[in-house]
Design a protein that fits this description.
Blueprint lengths: L27 E4 L9 E4 L11 H13 L1 H4 L3 E5 L8 E6 L4 H11 L5 E5 L18 E5 L8 H11 L5 E7 L6 H8 L13 H6 L2 E2 L1
Parallel strand pairs: 3-4, 3-6, 4-5, 6-7
Antiparallel strand pairs: 1-2, 7-8
């Protein structure tokens, strides 16, 4: 029996229970996607922000587009949800307000020949992109957007508002929990969803729990 006053109870959490981890410092990386991109993409990350890091879905999607879809991207307008896309006629990157300076910094680092603009976009909020953003875009790119179940309806609402009848969306995410597949079920009720079958690396990323 515990007779102590609950107001006097305290819990001591030691390093043995929760190991101390050294905070990561921002770093800059050069990425050529296994030799598919010349010159390589230069990325500055921010490990203090979830959206400021490179995640596996973005790598898988970028490699697939470089290897299999470059002809389809030419002369297209592209709007990206949390992704750095490639070589169309216009590129529009979106993320939350805290990530905007990092997006703009990475644009400046790479000096893309294609006009590239960063916009603030909060899922579920009224879309207030600048007048330069395509409405609707030819291509919508989304990677690593499936990670928080309560945000699924907001993400789906934003995708519906951004896409037109002719928009093609390339979507990649890593399944981390059973609930993540609930987004796919929701998306199938709204969009025509096709699983990518023509990626030579498909067997690799499927074993790692990624979906494209």
């Amino acid at each position: 029996m515990l007779d102590a006053n609950p107001d006097d109870l305290s819990v001591s959490i030691t390093e043995e229970l929760v190991p101390w981890t050294t905070p990561k410092s921002p770093c800059r990386a050069s990425i050529d996607f296994d030799g598919l991109l010349h010159p390589p993409l230069v990325l500055q990350d921010d490990p203090t922000e979830c959206g400021g890091q490179l995640w596996p879905g973005g790598m898988v999607l970028a490699k697939y587009l470089l290897r299999c879809k470059m002809d389809e991207l030419k002369d297209k307008t592209i709007l990206a949800l949390s992704l750095h896309p490639l070589h169309p006629s216009q590129i529009h990157l979106t993320d939350r307000a805290p990530i905007l300076p990092l997006l703009e910094h990475n644009i400046a680092l790479n000096r893309p020949r294609t006009p590239t603009v960063a916009h603030i976009l909060d899922w579920g909020s009224p879309i207030t992109l600048s007048s330069t953003a395509p409405s609707p875009p030819d291509i919508l790119l989304a990677a690593d957007c499936v990670y928080f179940e309560p945000a699924f309806p907001l993400l789906l609402q934003t995708m519906r508002e951004l896409m037109g009848t002719g928009t093609v969306c390339y979507f990649c995410f890593k399944k981390r929990r059973r609930a993540d597949m609930g987004f796919v079920k929701m998306a199938r009720k709204v969009f025509e969803v096709q699983v990518v079958k023509d990626d030579p690396d498909g067997g690799v990323w499927e074993r790692e729990g990624l979906h494209l």
